[in-house]
Structure formats: structure tokens, C-alpha cells
């Protein structure tokens, strides 16, 4: 049994948004909802700080190490590449993945530093394409008010504003923008509906690449 998928593949569902947009709590809520529905689901997140590449990223974000902008960009991308084959086998085996951040973070955060967008996108080409990208839309100022930032490298309002602009330019047909300033339960309800529709629609669709 591959769990609720009626033999079809799992869905690749990505949550994107600024820091403190509510992605992590909403991912967790969505995950337990889908599990409760008997759907084979796993929650993933990028950066995956547990791998050796992820540990380098984590040190960089904590300002414990300094890396050239392009170097850290490629490490974030490598961190997604090192999980690609596992991601593919999970999806083909019928497991839906709810992923907290993906390639769009990669492009938006690096482009916000002034790197060329085309250059930023290039290493993402060939990673698995999401079936659904849910963008939690929160004003940078509002996000900053939410209990403040944790002190990591990118957690500054001016920088997050530029990230937001780049996110907006990345929207495509797989994106659904959800107003992340609505009450948590309302956001949660919208995510449930988007995810359930996506899971049933993509069962017979082929996996594609970015
Ligand atoms: P999180 O663990 O979701 O709080 O993400 C850590 C920080 O790293 C957050 O500020 C977003 C940023 N980030 C996530 N993915 C990437 C990426 O691929 N490239 C860059 N430059 N930044 C990223
Ligand atoms: Na963060
Ligand atoms: Na998060």
C-alpha cells in the first residue's frame, strides 16, 4: 500500500515565503492533517542542515563562517541535489512530500544580494519540479513583528523586502498565493484544500524537472 494514493505517485508540495511567514508551522499542520487522512506523507525542509553540506550552510547562516555569495548559493543548490534521488523514489513510491523551502528560496535570496537571476536559476535546472508551490504572503514588516527574527544572517527587513520582490517575479502557474496574515486556522484550511486537490490531480501526471 502506498497510502491513499490509489497507486499513483505522491505530490511534491512546496511552501515558500519570507522568514517568519509561518511556513514551518503551516507545514507541520498540513503534514498532520494529511497523515490523519491516511495519506502517505513526509515533511521535508531545505536547507537540510543534517548533511555535511547542510552543516556548512548552517554555520554560514549563524555567521560562524564567511563564504563568497556564489559559493554559498551553490552549496544551497547542492543541498537540494543531494536529496534529489531520494525525493524521486519517495514520490514514485506514492509518498507526498510537503517541503518547507525549495529552489525559489535559492533564487530569491541570492538574487536579493544582487546576483544575476539567470545565474541563480542555472544550478536548479534538473531538480524535480513541484506540483504545487504555496506562497505564504506576509508583508516584510509584519513578518519582522512576529516575535522578531532569530538572529540569522538574512533576518533583516530591508533584505527581506528585496527577497519578496524576487519571489514575486518567480511566480508561475504552479503557484498559489495565500494571504499569510489571515488567522492561522484560515490559512491552514486553505492549505488543506490546495494540497488535497493537488494530490488527487497529480497522481497520474508524470514527474518533471525544473
Ligand atoms: P530556514 O531554515 O527556512 O529558516 O532558512 C534559513 C535561511 O536561509 C532563511 O533566511 C532562508 C535562507 N535560504 C533558504 N534556502 C536558501 C537558498 O537556497 N539560498 C539562499 N541564498 N538562502 C536560502
Ligand atoms: Na530563518
Ligand atoms: Na521556517
Automatic annotation (TrEMBL):
Record-level GO cellular component terms: cytosol; mitochondrion; nucleus
Keyword Endoplasmic reticulum: no
Gene Ontology BP terms: dTDP biosynthetic process; dTTP biosynthetic process; dUDP biosynthetic process
The UniProt record lists the keyword Cell membrane: no
Domain Thymidylate kinase-like: 15-190
Enzyme Commission no: 2.7.4.9
Involved pathway(s): Pyrimidine metabolism; dTTP biosynthesis
Domain of life from the UniProt record: Eukaryota
Gene Ontology molecular function terms on file: ATP binding; dTMP kinase activity; nucleoside diphosphate kinase activity
Name of the protein described by the UniProt record: Thymidylate kinase
Gene source species: Triticum turgidum subsp. durum
Residues of the full protein shown: 42 to 251 of 253
Amino acid at each position: 500500500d502506498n497510502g491513499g494514493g490509489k497507486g499513483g505517485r505522491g505530490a511534491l508540495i512546496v511552501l515558500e515565503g519570507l522568514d517568519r511567514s509561518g511556513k514551518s508551522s503551516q507545514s507541520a499542520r498540513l503534514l498532520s492533517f494529511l497523515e490523519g487522512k491516511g495519506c502517505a506523507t513526509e515533511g521535508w525542509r531545505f536547507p537540510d542542515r543534517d548533511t555535511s553540506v547542510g552543516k556548512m550552510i548552517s554555520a554560514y547562516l549563524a555567521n560562524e563562517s564567511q563564504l563568497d555569495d556564489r559559493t554559498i548559493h551553490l552549496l544551497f543548490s547542492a543541498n537540494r541535489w543531494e536529496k534529489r534521488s531520494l525525493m524521486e523514489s519517495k514520490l514514485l513510491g506514492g509518498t507526498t512530500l510537503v517541503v518547507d523551502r525549495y529552489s525559489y528560496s535559492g533564487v530569491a535570496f541570492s538574487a536579493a544580494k544582487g546576483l544575476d537571476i539567470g545565474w541563480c536559476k542555472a544550478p536548479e535546472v534538473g531538480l524535480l519540479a513541484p506540483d504545487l508551490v504555496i506562497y505564504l504572503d506576509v508583508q516584510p514588516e509584519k513578518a519582522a513583528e512576529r516575535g522578531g527574527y532569530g538572529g540569522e544572517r538574512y533576518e533583516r527587513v530591508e533584505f527581506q523586502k528585496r527577497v519578496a520582490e524576487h519571489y514575486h517575479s518567480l511566480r508561475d502557474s504552479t503557484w498559489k498565493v495565500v494571504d499569510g496574515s489571515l488567522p492561522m486556522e484560515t490559512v491552514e484550511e486553505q492549505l488543506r484544500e490546495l494540497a488535497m486537490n493537488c494530490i488527487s490531480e497529480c497522481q497520474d501526471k508524470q514527474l518533471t524537472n525544473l
